[in-house]
Amino acid sequence: MNKVTLRKTKREKRIVKFRSNVQGTSERPRLSVFRSNKYIYAQLIDDVSGKVLIDVSPEVKKLHEKKKKVDAAKEVGKLLAEKAKSKKILTAVFDRRGYKYHGRVKNLADGAREGGLQL
């Protein structure tokens, strides 16, 4: 039981450490990733105004149907990049939220790059 809380606090420390250096703007927003056991979510955030510019959470469940989680993560990244292109956002800062850059998180970033978003 104690290991779980330690892991959580370590991840929270990594998040705070990263967020002290990175801030998203309206021209170059922050691509924030949230990974649950079932799905992976992503959004583009303008930290200066404190607003979410683009969100793909309504479409996430449809993208995960009958696919592996890793493949669905790539599709989520592509969808986010397409929505960003429509709002004329070409670059973003990648915020992995303390997760390892591996597996689903890496595939989401690769999908966003394939969609035309520069990280």
Question: Can you describe this structure?
Answer:
By secondary structure, the chain is α+β, with helices and mostly antiparallel strands. The chain has a single domain, classed as Nucleotidyltransferase, domain 5. It contains four helices and four strands. Helix 2 packs antiparallel against helix 3 (69-86). The radius of gyration is 14 Å and the shape is globular. The mean pLDDT is 91.
Classify the beta-strand content into a percent band: 15-25%
* Rounded average pLDDT: 91
Give a short account of the largest sheet.
Answer: 4 strands, mixed
Give the low-confidence spans: none
Anisotropy-based shape = globular
The number of domains: 1
Query: Whole-number radius of gyration?
Result: 14 Å
Structural class, from secondary structure content? alpha+beta
What is the count of β-strands? Answer: 4
Architecture (CATH level 2) name: 2-Layer Sandwich
CATH class: Alpha Beta
Strand order of the largest sheet: 3-2-1-4
Indicate the percent of residues in helices.
Answer: 40-55%
Task: Report the span from N to C terminus.
Answer: 37 Å
- Counted by DSSP, the helix tally is 4
Pfam families: Ribosomal_L18p
Function: This is one of the proteins that bind and probably mediate the attachment of the 5S RNA into the large ribosomal subunit, where it forms part of the central protuberance.
Subunit structure: Part of the 50S ribosomal subunit; part of the 5S rRNA/L5/L18/L25 subcomplex. Contacts the 5S and 23S rRNAs.
Family: Belongs to the universal ribosomal protein uL18 family.
